[in-house]
């Protein structure tokens, strides 16, 4: 006598999607509430991931684990010290420039408004810009920039503490392959791909950012634009912000050039930035970034806006690593998420261990018709030997002969 067990009816896809979105909203609301703590923690994690490979050549040379961990912490501290020094210097120097050139900026905008009015052009936008350039408002902005620089420097003290503990734990986690190599191979592979993608992303961005910053700084110095070092630092930092970083790095030096040299100098600055940054950041760098992280351009752009809203200004710099983390935690463990991973820009064919395919049908495997037409191994065996009966045939249903 056979018994049948009844299964609970599966939820429809629309309900599952709504439940997943609701859970995501709850999680993101918690992250947004705790952003003051989580943002430095995430930055420390990224710094440790970048510096972690320093330990491997040292351990191969016979260094004890604690000494290799100390070397990782030292490298992380050096990176953080350089970042803090650049941000604090650029923040306070920018505040000084605003206070020094504010009257000249207001006069320049008023002259533009008068010239537009003289030729009968509507000046609503220009008048709105003039209202935004009121001395009290702009000086308040300068004070906010200085305070933001100090706030970032204070947050880095928490990052320093986090980095010590994370570097120590990373030394233990690096042995996961030896301890759980067979049992947790898929999870370890996902973590390794995520860490490697984060490292490659920041190495590519730092390399291109350094080249862009040097070229822009030298060009601004030759054009006699004030504070070229500040704008070079700004170009380096904004290079880590995908897609919109170019605009964020261009506007302040262009405005400064307009104040000191008129529209001709501002146009020259825009031309230099367009030639240098478009060639490097738009034509060359995306190819290397795409190979490093496998994210679509649309998702890269949306992730900047999204993570900036969720965790604050650091979200713009950590947008790509956080998006990679969500994909590694949510999509990659699910065998049925290949379509979503492909939409995000991931190389699904490489993840499956097959050759890259030009069409969606090849990515998803054989078509339904091909699966129907393809004979099973038992069918092929039946064709070779007629005595072999397929499963479910009459021979299987016949009762076994009784034995004495």
From TrEMBL:
Q: Which of UniProt's keywords are assigned here?
A: Cell membrane, Membrane, Transmembrane, Transmembrane helix, Transport
Tagged with keyword Membrane:
yes
Per UniProt, the ranges with Basic and acidic residues bias are: 370-386
Q: How does it sit in the membrane?
A: Multi-pass membrane protein
The answer on whether this UniProt entry bears the keyword Cell membrane reads yes
The region called Disordered is annotated at 351-404
- Residue ranges annotated as transmembrane are 39-58, 70-92, 141-165, 202-223, 229-251, 263-284, 304-326
Gene Ontology cellular component list? plasma membrane
Top-level lineage group: Bacteria
Q: Name one Pfam family in it.
A: AI-2E_transport
* Localization per record: Cell membrane
Recorded hits in InterPro entries, A to Z, give: AI-2E-like
Which family does the record assign? Belongs to the autoinducer-2 exporter (AI-2E) (TC 2.A.86) family.
The name of this protein is AI-2E family transporter
Q: What is the lineage of its organism?
A: Bacteria, Bacillati, Actinomycetota, Actinomycetes, Micrococcales
